[in-house]
Amino acid sequence: MLAFNMYFIPLTLPNLRLPRQRKAARSVQQKLAGELAKLKQKSFVQLGECFGKFIPSHLLTPSKSGRHSRNRIFSKQNTFWAFLSQVLDAEGGCKEVTLKFQAFMTKSCGKVVACSTSAYCQARKNIDESWLENIFKHLSQQLSHAKGRISLQGRRVIVADGTVLSMPDTVENQEEWPQQKHQKVGCGFPQAALCACFNLDNGALLSYALGNKKSHELPMLRQQSDTFKAGDIFLGDKGFCSYYDQSTFKDKGVDSVVTLARRKPVSASHALKVIDHNDLLITWPKPKHTKASSYSKDDWEQLPESLPMRQIKVVVSQAGFRVQAFYIVTTLLDPVLYPADEIAGLYFERWDVELFFRDIKTTMDMDILRCKSPAMVRKEITIHLIAYNCIQSLIVEAVAHTKQKVRRISFKASLQTIRSWSIQLAQKMPDKERQRLLRLLYQAIAKNVVIERVGRSEPRAVKRRPKNHHLLTAPRHEMKITQHRNTHRAEIALARC
């Protein structure tokens, strides 16, 4: 009996507990920390599962200090894949991305995880621009090693062109990229100029420069001079016809093929040599330096006094073209290695750069940007270009073991295939099954071949009429006041009747 009482006495003493056989109950803070740890181990990479092999993991690791270094639901890796998923989605809104993220996390954790657009937008805002630039440069360097065009001695052909992007009408965007002068304040949108260099062989975007309406394509092209290596061929339209740039490219070992502009064609009587009826070897004299020149006087003084060029007249006999004849000037002087017909055919393929921009602006909806600050606009442009290079990398990977050409694969169909297959890739499955699905994805992309329709001619006309809405000829708040005033006058006139 004494033993019995001694056993139960400690239970009656205050502030004394026997050691428990199970763990103590966790506090709310500990439970939250555990959930965050689970979310940190998981990743949003499933939405970009097919792109993970093109972006190394060390570029997506959390920062050691500062932004994106703490345990957050929208970590550095999750924010990147969510941002990339946003530009790949057909809708492209922040709400759709957060709902998709919530669905994925809820399926992984077994309960609903709170995700708001505010948290996602703040995480995007904390992304460093230089970090996105590093990812873009990594992808462009991967794609830049593709083989050149066999028709021009296996040399890599880089084509450049410019385009214009529109964005929300905010004070910050107007200061960075002002609208056109002829537009009234409040009736236009900020416009940014984009000049980009593409690999003509596989459509890879190698570099780009951003400017405003006052930025010409030539200065923006010079900002991308590191893109060109010795042995490359530069392909451009008449906007890039410049003595300074052709000479600078030649000094780097880069040849040029551009359309003649701002100079009169040289006749056969003034040519150094007549190679053929429409193929002349000519000399360009050094131009004079003026205030309108886009380069300094010191750079002008270093230019040679003359530049040997080759002038080729191309006669267009195919229907559907706006011109019947034009002139090409090039530094490819050897008519045996580079026949005139092949150079003319190369310039005919320059139109592919317009298709590249169509894939980015129209297919990926980058024509009208969404962000309202210049910093976020630059990030939005960079993430679009990263997504474009990711899709091009996937197309190159898909046709690697086939006889199909990269440029014959439909970009839009490839994007639609990725959108459809991402749902299957986001599910939990063994690695072997995932690799099998990726191989089937490559096969599906390789079958999206665009039929080459030679000689196709379509009129540039639109059949569907636009809706009969009034044009915004004044700021919206002024038009609302005017409309209210006219309505009030109509009511008074009706009451008098």
Report on this structure.
The protein is an alpha+beta fold and 497 residues long. The protein has three domains: 28-127; 131-288 and 296-363, Transposase Inhibitor Protein From Tn5, Chain A, domain 1 (Alpha-Beta Complex); 383-446, no CATH class. The chain has helices spanning 2-12, 28-41, 76-88, 94-109, 117-125, 129-143, 171-176, 217-222, 243-251, 297-301, 340-348, 352-363, 374-398, 411-425, 431-446, 476-496; strands at 157-166, 191-199, 205-211, 233-235, 255-259, 273-276, 279-285, 306-315, 325-330. Strands 3-2-1-4-5-9-8-7-6 form a nine-stranded mixed beta sheet, with helices on both faces. The longest helix is centred in the C-terminal third of the chain and has 25 residues, at 374-398. The radius of gyration is 31 Å and the shape is globular. The termini are far apart. Mean pLDDT is 83; it is low at 1-20 and 35-43.
Notable features of this structure?
single chain, alpha+beta, nine-stranded mixed sheet, disordered N terminus
